[in-house]
Write a structure and sequence with these properties.
The termini are far apart. It is flat, with a radius of gyration of 13 Å. It is mainly α. The chain is built from two helices and no strands.
Length: 41
Amino acid sequence: MVDVLTEIVIELPSEGVSEYAANLDNAPQWYVNFRKALLNY
C-alpha cells in the first residue's frame, strides 16, 4: 500500500474556496479525472 499526501495553500477565505469547489463547472480544473460533471435531480 502507498500513502500519498499533497498539500496546497490557497490564499482565499474558506467561503470562497467552498463556493468554487461546490460549483461542478469548476471540477475539471481541480480534479484531473473529471472531464465533465452533470448533476441530475
